[in-house]
Amino acid sequence: MAAVACMTVLSTAEGHVSLLSPCPRKGPYKGCQAPSSGQPDYDITAPIGVYGETIKTTYQIGASHGGGHCQWALSYDQGKTWVVFQTLIRKCLQNVPKGGKYSVNVKIPDGAPSGDAIFMWLWNNAIGNRELYSNCVDVQIKGTNGGTFTGV
């Protein structure tokens, strides 16, 4: 596991890319729980799902820059360490027009431990200046008590 900082990137149509679903921290989207007093939403009472479940993630695109690499990770220690469990090389967000939406199915790994976690999505563009975008979602995994999983 590598230590990675989890940043919250808010985007509107002028931005480049933002996780639309599941609702990211400080998600300004319809149906997302609004944070109180300008603070991030740390309410994890609505589980993302059980281990092995596939979640449809959706992104709002401002500029896809020819696509690029996407990774999805989980952290069980408040973002100090991460395990990347799914990667999409080169084709993530490819050919999505400005203002469009993009969806990817992400599978929570078999054996993922039960508990509070942070679900992170990260994108590195293919064309133009090197840009890195990321969103985090506070989740509760209903997995395996004492479970483990591996990844980068």
From TrEMBL:
Gene3D superfamilies: 2.70.50.70. PANTHER family: PROTEIN, PUTATIVE (AFU_ORTHOLOGUE AFUA_6G10930)-RELATED. This is Chitin-binding type-4 domain-containing protein. It comes from Modicella reniformis.
